[in-house]
Write a structure and sequence with these properties.
The protein is an alpha/beta fold and 448 residues long. The chain has 13 helices and ten strands. The protein is globular. The two termini are 39 Å apart. Bound molecules: flavin mononucleotide (FMN). Flavin mononucleotide (FMN) binds next to β4, α10 and α12.
């Protein structure tokens, strides 16, 4: 591992020189045409390989319906030109909300979601023509250990984890019966997502939330959901199977942590030896089961953001008060690219979305194009970069390059706003709204 550094590259040559100093073979090419190759997802043909990653904005109405800023966000993404929109983590259960303003889909809020999908599609039609299809995935989740339905932690966990539990006593461990009921909630919500007009639902299995936890529940005892591989994959595998049967019209996607970065027996995709490193044997077995059950789209990510945020989103500056990561951001990016490449190679017929591109700023398209050309992923997923610069795909198509003044600077303020319980967006490049909200949150924090 090398020392952390901030982004300071004026040219792609400087970036590639740094990568080679670090011993990293960073994929790179000047021809950006792979980003604009059509692809079919189910019955839809979409225009490009640029995807917006799911990112919570915490701006839902109290009943879980999308609020004004939610509408604004998705319309900006649609207008910016990404063809695959992966709508943010949406709770299937009021107790599993990560924040009182997290989206929550249920019978009374479904109309708001229906309008959100319709207006987002309409935005794409207005800007790119009536035949412009976008593919809309809704990420379904229960926040488990990170639930804060009323603003205060109310953890519901699958298994005790000494790396993640702040307190060791009075932990609410979800019983098998509670997990069975939760499965029903996911299925009911998938049906509502179909009625709202989404093309697919994602069963969120990443970042330490319940389904991810279950995959790593080696230490969960006396439970059909813990211990053996079959037991740990059961919840997710059955869920895919049941949704396929009960809501056959909707496609099923999974965003999966391929590597938690926590040692065995507490982390998924991890080796048994110290220091912890990657072992993709089980992630591959899980994907095989899911694909056999009918899952048709995969999004690969890594890390638990509350523990080692750099594993999933390499950055320049950590959230205030958090440590500087023990590695160079390019090492983190290369890890994400390599994991995704390995999994895509194993399942070449299943489209996979890669992540971790935002730190690369104006050079992400060059790396993304080379990743696509070499079939190391099928989509380039944009997280923070989409908050900062939603019209990046349009600029790339029209001007052939990005404006370095508009790119995400990976300052972590979007995550910081989330941690402070506020709405999340780009403080630096969407200042009018989020610059003001950030200042307000800081003032409120000072008063405490
Ligand atoms: C403010 C914020 C909210 C996020 N919300 C979600 C989410 O709802 N679901 C999810 O799977 N990942 C979420 N993520 C992670 C992103 O989808 C993405 O994996 C991460 O930011 C790395 O991609 P990037 O380098 O392009 O930003 C969030 C990240 C941020 C910064």
């Amino acid at each position: 591992m090398s020392q952390h550094e901030t982004f300071a590259f004026q040219s792609s040559e400087e970036l590639l020189r740094k990568a080679s100093e670090l011993g990293i073979e960073l994929p790179f090419q000047h021809d950006l045409s792979p980003l604009f190759e059509e692809i079919s997802l189910g019955s839809k043909k979409i225009a490009n390989r640029l995807a917006v990653q799911p990112m919570e904005g915490y701006d839902a109405d109290p009943d879980g319906s999308p609020g004004d800023l939610t509408f604004r966000r998705y319309k900006r993404f649609a207008k910016g030109g990404c063809s695959l929109l992966w709508f943010e983590a949406t709770s299937v259960d009021p107790d599993g909300r990560s924040n009182p303003r997290q989206l929550w889909l249920h019978r009374q809020s479904v109309d708001g979601f229906t309008r959100l999908v319709a207006e987002t599609r309409e935005e794409a039609h207005q800007n790119f023509g009536a035949d412009r299809d976008i593919f809309c995935v809704l990420q379904l989740t229960h926040s488990g250990r990170y639930s804060k339905p009323e603003g205060k932690p109310q953890p519901h966990i699958a298994v005790a984890n000494p790396f993640l539990d702040e307190k060791r006593d009075n932990l609410h461990i979800l019983s098998d019966e509670e997990l069975d009921r939760l499965q029903e909630n996911f299925i009911d919500t998938a049906l509502l997502a179909y009625r709202a007009g989404f093309d697919a639902v994602d069963l969120k299995a990443c970042h330490g939330y319940v389904i991810n936890e279950l995959l790593a529940a080696f230490a969960r005892q006396n439970s059909k959901y813990g211990g053996s591989f079959n037991n740990r994959v059961r919840f997710l595998e059955e869920l895919v199977h049941k949704i396929r049967l009960e809501v056959p019209q909707i496609q099923i996607a999974v965003r999966m942590n391929a590597y938690d970065g926590i040692p065995f027996p507490y982390g998924f995709g991890s080796t048994k030896d110290e220091p912890v490193s990657i072992d993709l044997t089980e992630p591959k077995q899980v994907l095989l089961r899911l694909i056999e059950e009918g899952c048709s789209l995969i999004n690969i990510t890594a890390g638990i953001p509350y523990l080692k945020p750099h594993l999933g989103r390499p950055f320049d500056r950590p959230v205030k008060g958090s440590p500087i990561p023990p590695e160079h951001p390019l090492e983190g990016i290369f890890r994400l690219l390599s994991i995704t490449a390995d999994l895509q190679k194993e399942f070449p017929e299943i489209p996979m979305v890669g992540t971790g591109y935002s730190w690369l700023r104006q050079f992400f398209p060059n790396i993304g194009a080379a990743v696509l050309r070499n079939k190391k992923a099928s989509f380039i997923g944009l997280g923070r970069s989409a908050f900062a610069y939603p019209e990046a795909p349009l600029d790339l198509k029209e001007k052939g390059k990005l404006d370095p003044k508009k790119v995400c600077i990976s300052c972590s303020r979007c995550s910081e706003m989330m941690r402070m319980g506020g709405t999340a967006g780009c403080v630096m490049k969407d200042k009018e709204i989020y610059g003001e909200q950030y200042k307000k949150l800081l003032r409120e924090r000072k008063k405490l």
